[in-house]
Amino acid sequence: MSDSQFGLGGLKYDPKMKAKPPELNVFLALMIIVVTFEVLGRVIYGDSFLFNQRANVDAIFNWPRLNIIILQVSIIGIIALGVTQVIISGGIDLSSGSIVGATAMIVMSFAQTELVNGNPNPKAIFGPWAMDLPVIVPIMIGLLCGAIAGSINGILIAYTRIPPFIATLGMMVSARGLSKWWSNGNPVSFPTESFAALGKGMWPVVYFVGLAILFHLVLRYTVYGKHTYAIGSNEDAARMSGINVAKQKVMIYAIAGMLASIAAIVLSSKNLTAQAGMGVMYELDAIAMTVIGGVSLAGGRGSILGTVLGALIFGVIISGFTFLKLDAYYQEMVKGAIIVGAVVLDQWRQKSASART
Amino acid sequence: MKKTLVVAGFAALMSTTAIAENIGVSMALFDDNFLTVLRNGIQAHADENGIDVQIEDAQNDVAKQLDQINNFIASGVDAIVVNPVDTSATQAMSDAAAAAGVPLVYVNRQPINLDTLPDNQAFVASNEVDSGTLETIALCDNWAAEGKTEVNVYVMQGELSNQAAVQRTADIYDVIAAGNCKVTVNVIDQQTANWSRDQAQNLMTNWLSTNTPFDGVIANNDEMAIGAIQAMKAAGIDMASVQVGGVDATQDALAAMQAGDLDVTVFQNAAAQGSGSLNAAVALAKGEAVDQTVWIPFELVIPSNLDGYLSKN
Amino acid sequence: MTDIILETRDLTKHYGGVHALEGANFTLRKGEHVAIMGDNGAGKSTFVRQITGVEQRTRGDIVFDGKPVNFAGPLDAREAGMETVYQTLALADHLDVSDNLFLGREKIKFKFGPFSILDYKAMREATLAALQKTGVKIPNIHNSIERMSGGQRQCVAIARTATFHSKLTIMDEPTAALGVQETAQVENIIRTLKEAGEPLILISHNMRQVMDLVDRIVVFRRGRIVANLNKSETDGQDVVAYITGAKTQPEYAEAANL
What stretches of chain A adopt beta strand conformation (E)? Predict the structure, then answer.
């Protein structure tokens, strides 16, 4: 009976039916953009985007450029790793940028150094007891801030009917208010040497890539990862299958909050300051990187790799514009067009792929 | 007897409210470094002089700011002080205040309708023509003192929708065109970093990756200048070999100047702008005549005189 | 040693003033395939919801595999060995066959709380075995199931039964949304289950399907059982008469008065 071909429509095992990974489209978009800048650079300025032009340096590539391409998107990239998980689970998080701002203010207040150029710190928030603390203290405080903010988001979303858009919007506004209130709008500056060392040089890239690898493995190989995809794909099915959806959501948003706070630590360390306005619009850039990377806003689809490629596309665009000396007024418009273009390209390729099956 | 007491009490009440002026203040942003100092200046001056101020945050939203103005008018303030979000959108605010007969003073950012302000409206600020000019001339003097005759520079602009960014950048070119610079200046590239330290740091790193030799960076504000400095130091550039200029004279900038990284900045007297605008508002509320445009001068800050500015911002 | 896998006595469910289910006495023996039929609102789905623990009954007893049970939720029922295949399918479109089969019950290589490492190899092997056992043919089990036909997806849902050694399978309108070929595919699998001696409760509107597959038919009308028929002793027209109320079996005479 089980060998019967009745009603099977003549299906056989076909290795060609294995679906192509969607990240391929994003990689293609990245290559097209890179090549475009390279060609334009050669044609207009006789200069190369990617390759080394200095005769006295023995290198094939222009390493300072390649480095800044990824460095300048690493901080938002770290946020995007959390946003990726949130969107895959079918939710959205608008509060990342504000969590960055609030965390930066709080963290920096515990990372200050007593003497600046031999004078007392003009931006001291607390008294001497909070000065020159071991660097682990502001780090732990930062992670705690992110975990608390993210958990509040998750609990509201999991246990009430408030849609994620509204719940995280509320956090976005409240956290920004907290940033401004913290020191009455005054910036907090002059951290200790050990804190400043955290965000120096290429370290932001190391954190970004390291966290990307970690969460790639988590999403693919752990129960938490599998359940994240399941909830995003069909929340009812997940619940009916015994997954504790509420607990899972709280975890996802808490992790996103912690990643935002890590970004805050790196950002304030790299810039040696915390300002109440830090992180504004970061959540939108993070969402854009994620969506360009192939993560579907409807949930259930996407990967960390895609988001990293999305971040690289952002980085290439920023550096490309400066390289071509594109008038600042045009840059925002062209960036918007590229974002939409990359997503349309990805959707078109997905549609034609399913048409072939 | 009772009636007389009530009337007397009422009259006393009315006269006391006429003594303490009630001023509504709408700030463009609460989380901007410079504007915070301005706001603190307004509050301090108000506290010292027994003036009642209600300060609102327009959160960089033009529509919200107009709503705040209308709310102030409706709650019967004696005068309004506005730090405009968008300097080209001030006509609507002027019209609303004029229609209600409420005096209005613009502070720090030049409204587009400056020439047609009604009699009971005024403007208190520092002239952005001076800020960029002082900055550029001082940098030029430094280059000349180093013995250079021709320099290549990068220009870092603030948010392009801000009049300050536009004017300070224009000042650079005006100084050159008027022949007020002792050296010849070539601008390699001009980009915006939106007043942000982090964006400036990334922009500078991008510029450095082109390996173009340069002699300095002229930035529209201190935050961007500091970002540029951080990027240059990370790339191992000796700060003594380049000139970097900013505007604002914030605490962070003065620290950078003490460390020998920042060469020129310009002090914008936020406290004086705050008290000046409040004084003008109170005077207009009392029906007194004021100068319609009050310029608070910019002050050049260089290593030799920076000690005088350490406590001001 | 009883061979009754499921028994309900006086099973009743009221939603406020609405008597959706009244006094249902039902028995199912091991290896038996029983169809539950009735018009819309007759109480079929309500009956299933009570025995699978989705809702709590108002009155009555449920005895499953010889033991009285009180399921707090559908997961308890599943753990006890009752698998339900819903019409809407509890499947996650973007995951593959293996993921869906083991959803909520993943096999683990290293236990680490929520971050336990999945054992893909074991799950893959179990999936292939289950598919073989139920006779389901899938070209590539690593593709996400959204690329599969409705029939294949339904078969995957049924294959969960084979994977988890359930004691009772309940199917609620499994082929209602499928085409002819796909319906045949699913019915083939149901026959496989019959051959293996697995008991089944099948809710279906499809008379032809019911007459083809099951041993016994239970008819509901207005919240009560009105007929309990052996397939060999009845035909399609007869069953329809019970559904519409034209006839009522003498044992259930009181239901006729409604």
Answer: 115-116, 119-120, 188-189, 273-274
Mean pLDDT comparison of A26-30, A193-197, C78-82, C163-167, highest-scoring range = A193-197
CATH of domain B129-267: 3.40.50.2300
Shortest CA distance from A17: residue in chain C: C140
Q: Is A1 on the interface with C (CB under 8 A)?
A: yes
SS3 C154: helix
CB of B20 closer than 8 Å to CB of B52: yes
Instruction: Judge whether A221 is closer than 8 Å to chain C, CB to CB.
Output: yes
Are C94 and A240 a contacting pair at CB < 8 A?
no
Class of domain C4-256: alpha beta
Domain boundaries B2-125+270-296, CATH class: alpha beta
Q: Is C105 on the interface with A (CB under 8 A)?
A: yes
β-sheet bridge partners, residue C11 = C24
- Determine contact, residues C87/C173, Cβ cutoff 8 Å: yes
The answer to whether A244 contacts chain C (CB < 8 Å) is: no
Asked whether the beta carbons of residue A271 and residue B31 sit closer than 8 angstroms, the reply is no
Of A221, A297, A301, which to mutate for an interface test with C (greatest number of C Cβ within 10 Å)?
A221
Q: How far apart are CA C95 and CA A231, in angstroms?
A: 11
Q: Environment class of residue C210 by beta-carbon count within 10 Å: exposed (0-12), middle (13-18) or buried (19+)? A: buried
Task: Supply B125's token pair.
Answer: 């600020």
Ordered by start, the domain boundaries in chain B are 2-125+270-296, 129-267
User: Nearest Cα to A322, choosing from A64, A32, A37, A57?
Assistant: A37
CA A136 to chain centre: 24
Equal fold, B2-125+270-296 vs B129-267: yes
- Minimal Cα distance from B208: which residue of A? A64
Cβ within 8 Å, pair A65-B201:
no
Å between A202 CA and nearest CA of chain C: 30
Q: What backbone phi and psi angles, to 5 degrees, belong to A41?
A: -60, -45
Chains touching C (3+ CB pairs < 8 Å): A
CA distance C157 to C169: 11
Task: Give per-residue pLDDT as tens, A223-269.
Answer: 999 999 999 999 988 988 888 999 999 999 999 999 999 999 999 99
Please report, for chain A, the start and end positions of each structural domain, with discontinuous segments joined by +. Answer: 77-281+295-301
CA distance A70 to chain B (A): 10
Q: Residue C85 burial by CB count (10 A; 0-12/13-18/19+): exposed, middle or buried?
A: buried
Please list every residue in chain B whose beta carbon sits closer than 8 Å to the beta carbon of residue A65. Answer: 206, 209-210
Beta strands in chain C (DSSP E): 4-15, 18-29, 33-38, 59-64, 67-68, 82-85, 108-110, 117-118, 168-172, 200-203, 216-221, 224-230
Average pLDDT value for residue range C105-111: 90
Chains that touch B (3 or more CB pairs under 8 A): A
Q: Inform me whether the C-beta atom of residue C196 falls under 8 Å from chain A C-beta atoms.
A: no
Tell me the pLDDT tens digit for each residue of C198-207: 899 999 988 9
Residue among C95, C117, C192 whose CB faces A2 most closely: C192
Interatomic CA distance for residues A1 and B287, integer angstroms? 101
